Amino acid sequence: VYDNKLMDGTSSTTFAPLMTTNRAMVVTILWRLEGQPETDDATLSFTDVESGVWYTDAVNWAASKGIVKGYSDTVFAPNDTVTREQLATILYRYAEYKEYDVSARGDLTTFTDGSAVSTWAADGMTWAVGAELITGKDGGKLDPTGTATRAEVATILMRFLTA
User: Fold this and answer.
1) Which long-range contacts (CB under 8 A, 24 or more apart) does 66-73 make?
2) Fewer CB atoms inside 10 A, N or C side of the chain?
3) Is the pTM of the predicted complex or chain greater than 0.85?
């Protein structure tokens, strides 16, 4: 993902794999994967996404394609740390947008915390588990509301791209 310029380092010599990833970073990765398509700021409805910021075009593009939704019609919260279930849902919606096969379904009950997956994230998480993009953590946990590190995002994205 670094070699393909989907993810940048945090400096010229550091990738920071254990650093958390925010919502703006995730949509920017997918926007780069799409070749950084042009967007129209006039369609931007999130009041917390300013025009001309490094992630503005990415958020606007992803929202216009239905890949991301805000916490409300006007709040995207670009700097909020992305959770594992948010990441799965965003990738699921991206796969739908690309018209990829999203029929894979995993059994969330095999994880000790599978019942903790939010209702809105159930489709994304069952798909991500079924497609083997997201696997459990220590102790048989899925950790749906846990934060996604840069290393986890890179790993999940590579699984997605090579599936």
Assistant:
1) 66/93, 66/96, 66/97, 67/27, 67/30, 67/93, 67/94, 67/97, 68/23, 68/27, 68/93, 70/45, 70/46, 73/45
2) C
3) yes
